[in-house]
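TL;DR need structure tokens for one chain.
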Amino acid sequence: MIDKDSYLDKLKILLQERYAYLQRCEVASPELIQYLEGYLSAARTLDAVSYDEIKAVMDKAHYEVFGKTVEERQLAELYAPVPQGDPDDLELPTWIRWGVRLDRL
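>> reply
TL;DR here they are.
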């Protein structure tokens, strides 16, 4: 039987994996998202943890991976300068222009 602390520890590890993958690839892994949604849904359905406890773990895991809060990261991305490139660059696939590396997937 898993207790609340064990559940939250496992949740933090899963979230750190998701955030690290997102940081490396700039897209979230659909499989990991689906697994996390099921993990969170089960805990909420069983009323094992509160929303506030889950939110606290999510915020902590996010800060440990990105070094900033969710809100800070969203603002930084919102106001990030848009690169002005050569129109010929548009002939390249988007994933190459965005710098996604296939060897990191």
